[in-house]
Automatic annotation (TrEMBL):
This is 5-methyltetrahydropteroyltriglutamate--homocysteine methyltransferase. PANTHER family: 5-METHYLTETRAHYDROPTEROYLTRIGLUTAMATE--HOMOCYSTEINE METHYLTRANSFERASE. 5-methyltetrahydropteroyltri-L-glutamate binds at residues 16-19, 121, 524-525, 570, 614. Pathway: Amino-acid biosynthesis; L-methionine biosynthesis via de novo pathway; L-methionine from L-homocysteine (MetE route): step 1/1. Catalyzes the transfer of a methyl group from 5-methyltetrahydrofolate to homocysteine resulting in methionine formation.
Length: 763
């Protein structure tokens, strides 16, 4: 019999119950008991949802984040919250949310820069964890009550529970040494606590423990490799069987290390590392469990069950009941239930599987292996029919788009002249002062805007009234910008719900779910659009809004677009073609929009690539291949314009050192970046590289309600001018202003414009 099991279940709830319960508790509108009860209820429901699996995860539920849970489990709390006398859950939330500013909570569209330095992306997912903090003298002590309680709850429910914990090496690797000490030196102190934990779980009746070590799919130097061996050697005597779980990537050079760990089983991501499984079949001792992650836990497509069986059956014959089946990773990264979707296009819906449907697929595979394919003949036939329909659907395949992408040449990604020549023409045309001022695109999304949009969506507001309301907002932001004296204006993005969704909704090949929420961090969720087919642009998407805005002013109006790489990286993408191919299709669509804007007289066009860095592969050795196609896609989107048209791009993160040559190769005339919190130090990368084009280093931290003073901005810009020639500097905020209030934005921008004037006077 093949064991089927799950690595983790989405905790937020099919209707985002956990989100609403958390937010109500934080506002003081409900009690701690209410929240605890809701947690217990969700766990119970989710275990019921996983009925029929042989092993069900416990400990995957969290009130905020599983990494933060691990820090509490190991007694590793930052000093600033130690000694807190109140309730443990409240202390937990203090660590989770303590330092994040009000506005930061709102800014989920922005690549994880949400709570400065404390939260970061979980591997290459869009889930953000709270970074563990270490110091040379960090001590660990076991606090297992939360996990043991959940285990008891599961056992009471009659569930065959498999506690899930983060392994010691991954825990250390994900944390940050606050005093620059060597994190690995803490291992000796950490391991005894893990041993205690494993013993406690054994005593509580667990037979298997899943111990997640996804850093095994990243590059590990010798010191870390040795640490792995040492750690797992110490776990040998514990009274539970350990399943070391890896996911999200390929084991490659770590294959022998993973296979050689003295544990009872190894889980691998057979979606991302199918080839690696071959190597494991010879390397992994025959008495060890090999758990194959055959259902994609990162995507929303139906699994090809027949093809999976074709692949798995011979392995199962060879290794017998030592082969287990599971999703590739925790289902945390997919929405809960496809059945809730009422408005999804029927074709598209028939091709999809969310968490519950993925578990159904797992059960079907388990049945087929246990009793033969005959036992699930109808299910397999249904699955095959859906997959065949998808493969052949004209909704998915558009020969004209495929031909256009095939016909792309590198020429199309090249501007007509070099930057220096373009800059002269643009300067003549735009006639801007030194230190020109601009903003990144959005102005406050007021309650009025949100209300109008939701009334429009529900049909209470007709199209004309909605358009009129948005035009009024655009006019308001243009007037404010003129009053402020900004040099290059924006229309303010009032009409956009989200910088990706807005474009996805207008492109062919995209679908939108109603309830397809995925946890991003804490109570925050995102609903990634579903890119299902060849991408085309049936009509212009932004031209009317931008030309309307331009008609209101003599100042240059900056057209505002989201770039192809960002649209791709914030979507659920196709699994039937490479990401690069989908990205090229998006690039062509955005290119058409850019050219239409130019034709309509828009001479400054910004193409945001906020998520370009997010797409970097987990292994550095694979970065360049990604950067090559990603940058090529940006170039295709942007560089069809004439010399006099100025292309801007914007990126809201603060690490450029390792990707600066690719950033330069994008060849945008102007790049605006997030810098205010780094005190301009991140411009070092641009200075060392001798970045040739113009730069707008952010001088206003839009995550915070604080209003930067004129002097503060002048000082920052002076630091910038030490690194980049002053005649190539712009003055602008870090990012868009949609999460701020007008009452904050006006004084802040007013100080920014005053600072630019002071700077002009000083050169
Ligand atoms: Zn940004």
């Amino acid at each position: 019999m093949t064991t089927i099991h799950n690595l983790g279940f989405p905790r937020i709830g099919a209707k985002r119950e956990l989100k609403f319960a958390l937010e109500s508790y934080w506002k003081g509108e409900s009690s701690r008991e209410d929240l605890q009860a809701l947690g217990a209820q969700l766990r119970q429901r989710h275990w019921e949802n996983q009925a029929g699996l042989d092993l069900v995860p416990v400990g995957d539920f969290s009130f905020y984040d599983q990494v933060l849970d691990t820090s509490f489990l190991l007694g590793n709390l930052p000093e600033r919250v130690q000694g807190f006398q109140g309730d443990e859950l409240d202390n937990y939330f203090r660590v989770a949310r303590g330092r994040s500013a009000q506005g930061a909570e709102e800014h989920s569209a922005c690549c994880g820069g949400v709570a400065a330095g404390e939260m970061t992306k979980w591997f290459d997912t869009n889930y953000h964890y709270i970074v563990p903090e270490f110091k040379a003298d960090t001590q660990f002590t076991l606090h297992a009550s939360r996990l043991l309680e959940q285990l008891a709850q599961a056992q009471e429910q009659g569930v065959h529970a498999k506690p899930v914990i983060i392994g010691p090496l991954t825990y250390l690797a994900l944390g940050k040494a606050k005093d620059e000490s060597n994190k690995l030196a803490l291992l000796d102190r950490l391991l005894p606590v893990y041993v205690q934990l494993l013993e406690a779980l054994a005593e509580a009746g667990a037979d298997w423990v899943q111990i997640d070590e996804p850093i095994l799919v990243t590059e590990l130097d010798d010191e870390w490799q040795q640490a792995f061996k040492k750690a797992y050697e110490q776990f040998k005597p514990v009274g539970v069987k350990l399943l070391v779980a890896t996911y999200f990537g390929q084991l490659l050079e770590n294959t022998a290390l993973a296979a050689g760990l003295p544990v009872a089983g190894l889980h691998v991501d057979a979606i991302n590392d199918r080839d690696g499984v071959d190597a494991l079949l010879t390397l992994l001792a025959k008495d060890k469990v090999l758990s194959l992650g055959v259902i994609n836990g990162r995507n929303i497509w139906k699994t090809d069950l027949t093809a999976t069986l074709d692949w798995v059956e011979p392995i199962a014959r060879q290794r017998g009941d030592r082969v287990w089946l599971a999703p590739s990773c925790s289902l945390l990264h997919v929405p809960v239930d496809l059945e809730s979707e009422q408005n999804l296009d029927a074709d598209v819906k028939s091709w999809l599987a969310f968490a519950l449907q993925k578990l159904d697929e797992l059960r079907i595979l388990g049945q087929a292996l246990a009793h033969g394919r005959e036992a699930v003949k109808a299910e397999l036939a249904e699955n095959l029919a859906a997959l065949t329909a998808r493969r052949q659907s004209p909704r998915v395949h558009n020969p004209a788009v495929k031909a256009a992408v095939a016909g792309l040449s590198a020429e199309q990604g090249k501007r007509k002249s070099e930057y220096a020549q373009r800059a002269v023409k643009q300067a003549q045309f735009l006639n801007l002062p030194a230190f020109p001022t601009t903003t990144i695109g959005s102005f406050p999304q007021t309650t009025d805007i949100r209300r109008a949009r939701s009334e429009f969506k529900t049909g209470r507001l007709d199209e004309n009234s909605y358009q009129a309301a948005m035009r009024a907002e655009i006019e308001r932001s243009v007037r404010e910008q003129e009053k402020l004296g900004l040099d290059v204006l924006v229309h303010g993005e009032a009409e956009r719900n989200d910088m990706v969704e807005y474009f996805g909704e207008q492109l062919e090949g995209y679908a939108f779910s109603q309830f397809g929420w995925v946890q991003s961090y804490g109570s925050r969720c995102v609903k990634p659009p579903i890119l299902f087919g060849d991408i085309s642009r049936p009509h212009a998407m932004t031209v009317e809004w931008i030309t309307y805005a331009q008609s209101l002013t003599q100042k240059p109006m900056k057209g505002m677009l989201t770039g192809p790489v960002t649209i791709l990286n914030w979507s659920f993408v196709r699994d039937d073609q490479p990401r690069a191919e989908s990205c090229r299709q998006l690039a062509l669509a955005i290119r058409e929009e850019v050219l239409d804007l130019e034709k309509a007289g828009v001479r400054v066009i910004q193409i945001d690539e906020a998520a370009l860095r997010e797409g970097l592969p987990l292994r550095q050795s694979q970065w360049q291949r990604y950067l090559d196609w990603a940058v090529e896609c940006f170039r295709i989107a942007a560089n069809g314009v004439s010399d006099a048209t100025q292309i801007h791009t914007h990126m809201c993160y603060s690490e450029f050192n390792d990707i600066i040559s690719s950033i330069a190769h994008m060849d945008a005339d102007v790049i605006t970046i997030e810098t205010s919190r780094s005190d301009m130090e991140l411009l070092d990368a641009f200075e060392h590289f001798q970045y040739p084009n113009q730069i707008g280093p952010g001088v206003y931290d839009i995550h915070s309600p604080n209003i930067p003073s004129e002097q503060h901005i002048v000082n920052l810009m002076k630091k910038a001018a030490e690194r980049v020639p002053a005649d190539r500097l712009w003055v602008n905020p870090d990012c868009g202003l949609k999460t701020r209030q007008w009452a904050e934005v006006i004084p802040a921008l007013s100080n920014m414009v005053a600072a630019a004037k002071t700077l002009r006077a000083s050169v």
